[in-house]
């Protein structure tokens, strides 16, 4: 895509701090400098998000996410990781190119990435009826 910042990174029009690259994916450090090691994993094929990505693209992404995550834990000294993904603007997706965030974690690092939810509004049985795939 012409104006997609991640496509420009893939095409080497914009530099990145590359962690890993293969034929299908690219993992690089997020320049936000919010958490040490905050990594973005993207497909080289442009998709808006997981809702329009094909199965092959998702499989390649999951492989890279697992590879990078295992590297961070087994070789880099982290104790765990968070994997985050947002889909569509209402879910806080800010770059409209499919991407996953890997947040490396250590014990007692005081990083809180899980949102505080206000509580469910409806009985769980009603929600099940609405969401169940028959």
Brief characterization of the structure:
This protein is of the alpha+beta class and 134 residues long. 25% of the residues lie in helices and 19% in strands. A hairpin with a 3-residue loop joins strand 1 and strand 2 (25-29).
Could you describe the 3D structure shown?
The protein has 134 residues and is an alpha+beta fold. It has 3 helices and 5 strands; from the N terminus they run αβββαββα. The chain has helices at residues 5-10, 55-74, 124-131; strands spanning 18-21, 25-29, 39-43, 80-84, 100-105. It is globular, with a radius of gyration of 17 Å. The model has no long low-confidence stretch (mean pLDDT 96).
User: How would you describe the oligomerization state of the chains in this entry?
Assistant: single chain
Shape: globular
Into how many domains do the coordinates divide?
1
Helix count? 3
- H/E topology pattern: HEEEHEEH
Strand tally = 5
């Amino acid at each position: 895509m012409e104006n997609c910042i991640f496509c420009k990174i893939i095409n080497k029009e914009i530099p990145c701090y590359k962690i890993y690259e293969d034929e299908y994916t690219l993992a690089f450090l997020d320049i936000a400098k919010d958490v040490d090691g905050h990594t973005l994993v993207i497909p080289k094929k442009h998709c808006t998000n997981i809702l329009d990505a094909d199965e092959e693209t998702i499989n390649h992404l999951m492989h890279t996410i697992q590879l990078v995550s295992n590297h961070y834990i087994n070789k880099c000294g982290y104790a765990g990781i968070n994997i985050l993904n947002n889909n569509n603007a209402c879910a806080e997706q800010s770059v409209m190119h499919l991407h996953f965030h890997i947040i490396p974690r250590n014990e007692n690092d005081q990083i809180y990435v899980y949102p505080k939810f206000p509580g469910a509004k409806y009985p769980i049985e009603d929600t099940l009826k609405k969401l169940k795939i028959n």
